[in-house]
Here is the input.
Amino acid sequence: MSAELTEVRAARFLNWNVAIIALTVIVLIVAAATVDSFGTSQNFGFLVLDLLPIALVALPMTLVIVTGEIDLSVASTLGLSSAVMGYLWNANQPIESIIPLCLLLGAVLGAVNGLFVTVLGLPSLAVTIGTLALYRGLAFVVLGDSAVADFPAVYTDWVTGTIGGTSIPDVLIIIVVLAVVFGVVLHATPIGRAVFAVGAGEQAARFAGVRPGRLKFWLYVASGLISGLAGVLWTLRYSSARADNGAGLELAVVAAVLLGGVSIFGGKGALPGVIAGVVLLGSLQNALRLSDVSNEALNVVTGVLLIVSVLAPNLARSVLQRRRT
Amino acid sequence: MTAVDLPAPRRSSLDVVLKVRELGIVIALAVLVAVTTISNPRFLSGQSIRDILLGTAILAVLAVGQAVVVITRNIDLSVGSVLGLSAFTVGTLLQNSPRLPVIVVLVVGAAVGAVCGVVNGALVRFGNVPALVVTLGTLYVVRGITYFWAGGSQINADELPSGFLDFGNATVLGIPYLVLLAILVLVVTGVVLRNYRTGRELYAMGSSPQAARLAGIPVGRRTIGAFVVSGALAGLAGVLFAARFGTIDAAAGTGYELNVVAAVVVGGVAVFGGSGTVWGAALGALLLTTIASSLAVLEINQFWQQAIVGGLILLAIGADRLVAVRVAAGLKKRGSHVS
Here is the structure.
């Protein structure tokens, strides 16, 4: 790849990233100005907590989508992790061993996806629609429609608490640390370059010495692990383990990632844009909820954003091409 | 594989595979029915069979529409939401004008669905957006619109005209109207897909969109057409849903898309497009409905149902993959260039 091409590419990413970050800032300013309680420090805490599961799961999802695959089972993995957490807590297991177990469970569920996609070579869309149903079904088998509450206050307080005397939520640490880790891996390591190479062309990547199967497998494991973590944090935040926790979250995650400028066809994307996409989606939902828009109606916004985020760049490109010819 | 030795290798070997594929579902069904009946003879009573057939009718109409879309290498995840919108629309319509003939209600339901299908199809065609993204989006948009409109309200059976509810319960020669309607949809779609030029073009598009375009097939128009069929059938299924259950709220049909995709995939329609039949999809619908019903009869926890649906999807695509690999290997041996 010539330096010139890299430069052109960098410029294009920069444009999209600048655009989406600018849009996010505008939404934040407008929301703070028009919605009464949006700009308060208390709402900032709620906003971060609302963002938490989308932000965490969007990180590995970005890498998965850049390789040209998809993982629709993340919300069900979150739900199963939450259900198992409740089941074990009900069985009087110590929380210190439950949490690592739930993370391990998430990694195993991700590995199952990875095996189907890489070893059997099945389309990830079909596989993860299958495991979306399977994992959610297992969550209901484990916990039924009951809820488990009364998790230890030390943990639930930490998740909903803030750092020292500031109004910065504790969980923001987790988001920032993981975002930095995933950002560095994607944009500054050979693993990240392999991810882009596989997404741009699997055959070519193989000739260049990348093993696409192994890479994808570990990305699915990461996706499962982070979804398991999101399940634990979700349970602790509401102090309620339920089988239907996080149902439908995959839509918001995929919407945020695509909104962040990641191409659904793979090979293109950048993590700062995805973070902006998450914040944009989250703050829009938060502001609308504060304006008494119901949750079901919020889904209209998420659905429209999802379609527009893919439609807009395509339309822009075809307009540009028409002008050139 | 003896099929490979026949003169027209590709067609005949695929035919044999598909026949075996559908045979597999029939065997699975027979085993399931036998096991369930042995443990509880009540399973084969008239009422139980009627329930299974009615449930299958709704799922099969959805699965036939989905099969048409999947054959073109697309997917329509919005069917459950379209069903809900259509059911609520016809419910409201019948509340206001109870004297409408059933045929008009069916047409209105299908029209509501067709409009949703046009939106899906146009976004896929003109926006160059993958069907997965478009229909995942419209799944939530359409459901949201229904919630906006319905709010928390519910339409109950006593608010619907008795003529319409009769349509949901009445039978001809012991076969419910809903089942006859589903069979009609199945046969018409099946014949069009198998014997008509338009139908064959859909398969060609699914096998290779580029080749189909080079062969002069209007790929864009056919794509929209496939989504309109899927939408219209989902709308029709909404009317059947309303007639069967009589109780409709904004959540009607939530999560149906999973069962529909499962029925289609289990029925042997490949998710890569280009192969499979609506007969298989309908058999898949029958199998899934029978499983749900035998879980109840066998007194197995109902919560297992969704997990079984997921497991079946994985099993079906895994099995299809293995068969496809073997067929491809067989064809390669004969020096054919089909991959």
Observations:
- Chain A touches chain B through 46 residues (CB under 8 Å).
- The first helix of chain A runs from residue 3 to 34.
- Chain A has a mean pLDDT of 88.
